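Worked example 4.2. Below are the chains of a multi-component assembly; read each line carefully before continuing.
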Amino acid sequence: DSGVTQTPKHLITATGQRVTLRCSPRSGDLSVYWYQQSLDQGLQFLIQYYNGEERAKGNILERFSAQQFPDLHSELNLSSLELGDSALYFCASSVGTSGVESTGELFFGEGSRLTVL
Amino acid sequence: AQKITQTQPGMFVQEKEAVTLDCTYDTSDPSYGLFWYKQPSSGEMIFLIYQGSYDQQNATEGRYSLNFQKARKSANLVISASQLGDSAMYFCAMREGPPNDKIIFGKGTRLHILP
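Applying the procedure described above to all two chains together yields the following structure tokens:
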């Protein structure tokens, strides 16, 4: 158990709909990352938050948005869903800024599998 | 720009043999970290090993070792005495130094261990 909790584990919805994926990081971790993994593909970096602030942005579509709340949990909102958005969405957390004390290793949740029909 | 390349989409290796999974990276940041993760068919991401750019020695964790060649910008994962349970997808990843802590992943290598 990585200590990172993602909900829901599975989600089936229709094109054009909107969904929210939720992530609770490991206790004490300030940084949250979101990744998208399409079928048999690598992990595409979407966005990173650190202590409530957006830290880095990747190839995140304008239809997608995210935020990190004061209690450090994070939500990824996906709207106007298309068939191609079907994927496994991972949340990962880390201690925070890398440094001598920490490798900044990512701890992954089990993922939320989104199917858009 | 930050980039990770894994050139082996798939590999087949006989059980008990050693296997090397290739990873090359590109960054202009003098401070960075390199990771390897394993993703079994069940889907979870399992951290294997870490190498910091300033580490003098190659990282080792049990049967895993990282062959770090800084000048060549390569960070190959070596698995000694492979086991059937090593069959999985393997991802190389890189994090540049602060304040940019973005961690990007390569496309992965699917490793099949043959009995």
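Take a moment to check your reading of the output against the notes. Chain B has a mean pLDDT of 93. The first strand of chain B starts at residue 3 and ends at 5.
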